[in-house]
């Protein structure tokens, strides 16, 4: 069937642009673009038929349709030909119940969408597979020197991996000394050109935009709407995993804010095509040290006032001038959304509490979990609500965060509430037995 999509201006300027055009902003007004699909064409297939097709493709061994993104090909980038798709098996991640965490908050059904179990360990894979695949298709007709991004860690890992799989050069611009070692080594291992800049993310973002304008590199940050198209499949996946029932709340961390606009886009498409019957409420969670969206929300959705982001354990969302601010506000207004902010101690304690359900959560997921703690405490989220928290990255990328928490050495977390330490003992049976009984009785 003739499915199609194009870029259009989020401010409503006239004109559309093909997805394989190198364009990031509206040429008329300079605002961001978004991908708009031909709904009439998509509606020629019934909701039941879409559900059946998605079920057939789910984790299929028929590449690339078993990908969580490319199983929804028609809803993502229908003009992209299959031979240009660059997939590393992204998506189709678990939706895990966390009953101990939920009980501690007085809630019922709370689940964590574990996007960090994707190929490079973060949800950024979902957008990068779309972007790199489209660049592969573009490069067949026009030269591109490289694909480049500014990053606080996860974006760089995803770009480097997918560019390597496609045989392309990747350029990564990072704030020097402000990301974890595990995040830094990922693009290095994949062969990317890594530039560590004496700046913060916002400074790196300014540089990469200038490189895209003047040096013939393709911009891979979330201001490029192709990224959002892949990331919106999180909404589609979690609806599918809940048998097309929508949760009452979705809580998601927010930094550059492409993720919440993607989440909203996914739910809107599901609603328009009849696969779901309602919208969930959405909460964006920000670290208190980098929370311009939270400030806007508290001021009645005031215009963005960029801030100098302060150091936070949630380094990937340490962003003071989010590119996708307008898209995020639009999505939150449509979904009766709220914004919460979490302190360093709150995010660390919430992360550690959720780990007691067998997770190994990253600090950014900790921000979202802490926001849920606050919503529950205020009674905005109640026991009869079904809640999904979006986990954006693997905790394995942030081992220092975990070690520091349990050693009580994290800055801003002087008294970790859920600290756990090894019990050191001599090689004596009685000592081991006594420690066993004390430990088990203490947690009875």
Attribute tags:
444 residues, globular, Rossmann fold, six-stranded mixed beta sheet, alpha/beta, four-stranded parallel beta sheet
Could you give a short description of this structure?
The protein is α/β, with parallel strands linked by helices. It has helices at residues 39-42, 47-57, 73-76, 99-105, 124-138, 154-166, 181-189, 201-214, 225-231, 233-241, 258-272, 292-298, 325-334, 344-355, 363-378, 399-406, 429-442; strands spanning 5-9, 33-37, 95-97, 109-114, 146-150, 170-175, 193-197, 217-219, 249-253, 281-287, 338-342, 386-391.
Description of the molecule:
By secondary structure, this protein is of the alpha/beta class. It has a domain at 95-121 and 246-406: 3-Layer(aba) Sandwich (Rossmann fold), CATH 3.40.50.1100. 39% of the residues lie in helices and 14% in strands. The protein has helices spanning 39-42, 47-57, 73-76, 99-105, 124-138, 154-166, 181-189, 201-214, 225-231, 233-241, 258-272, 292-298, 325-334, 344-355, 363-378, 399-406, 429-442; strands at residues 5-9, 33-37, 95-97, 109-114, 146-150, 170-175, 193-197, 217-219, 249-253, 281-287, 338-342, 386-391. A 6-stranded mixed β-sheet has the order 3-4-12-9-10-11. It has a 4-stranded parallel β-sheet with strand order 7-6-5-8, sandwiched between helices. β6 (170-175), α7 and β7 (193-197) form a beta-alpha-beta unit. α9 crosses α11. The longest helix has 16 residues, at 363-378. The chain is globular, with a radius of gyration of 22 Å.
């Amino acid at each position: 069937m003739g499915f199609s999509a194009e870029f259009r201006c989020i401010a409503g300027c006239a004109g559309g642009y093909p997805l394989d055009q190198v364009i990031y902003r509206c040429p008329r007004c300079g605002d961001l673009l978004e991908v708009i699909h031909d709904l009439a064409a998509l509606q020629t297939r019934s909701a039941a038929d879409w559900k059946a097709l998605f079920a057939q493709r789910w984790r299929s061994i028929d590449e690339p349709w078993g990908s969580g993104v490319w199983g929804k090909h028609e809803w993502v980038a229908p003009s992209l030909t299959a031979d240009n798709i660059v997939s590393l098996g992204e998506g189709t991640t678990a939706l895990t119940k966390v009953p101990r965490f939920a009980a501690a908050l007085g809630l019922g059904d709370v689940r964590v969408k574990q996007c960090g179990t994707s190929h490079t360990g973060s949800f950024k894979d979902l957008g990068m597979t779309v972007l790199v695949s489209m660049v592969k298709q573009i490069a067949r007709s026009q030269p591109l020197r490289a694909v480049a991004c500014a990053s606080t860690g996860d974006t760089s890992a995803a770009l480097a991996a997918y560019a390597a799989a496609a045989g392309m050069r990747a350029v990564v611009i990072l704030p020097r000394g402000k990301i974890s070692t595990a995040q830094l080594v990922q693009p290095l291992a994949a062969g990317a050109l890594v530039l560590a800049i004496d700046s913060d993310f916002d400074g790196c973002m300014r540089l990469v935009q200038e490189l895209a304008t003047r040096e013939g590199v393709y911009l891979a940050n979330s201001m490029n709407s192709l990224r959002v198209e892949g990331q919106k499949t999180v909404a589609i996946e979690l609806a599918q995993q809940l048998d097309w029932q929508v949760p009452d709340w979705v809580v998601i961390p927010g930094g550059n804010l492409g993720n919440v606009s993607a989440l909203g886009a996914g739910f809107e498409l599901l609603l328009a095509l009849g696969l779901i019957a309602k919208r969930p409420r959405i909460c964006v969670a920000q670290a208190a040290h980098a929370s311009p969206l939270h400030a806007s929300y508290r001021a009645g959705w005031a215009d963005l006032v960029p801030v100098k982001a302060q150091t936070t354990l949630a380094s990937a969302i340490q962003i003071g001038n989010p590119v996708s601010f307008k898209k995020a506000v639009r999505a939150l207004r449509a979904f009766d959304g709220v914004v919460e902010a979490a302190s360093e101690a709150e995010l660390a304690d919430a992360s550690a509490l959720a780990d007691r359900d067998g997770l190994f959560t990253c600090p950014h997921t900790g921000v979202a979990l802490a926001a849920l703690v606050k919503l529950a405490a205020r009674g905005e989220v109640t026991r009869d609500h079904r809640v999904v928290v979006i986990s954006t990255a693997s905790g394995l990328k942030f081992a220092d965060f975990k070690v520091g928490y349990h050693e009580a050495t994290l800055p801003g977390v002087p008294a970790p509430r859920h600290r756990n330490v090894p019990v050191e003992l001599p090689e004596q049976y009685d000592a081991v037995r006594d420690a066993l009984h004390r430990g088990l009785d203490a947690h009875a």
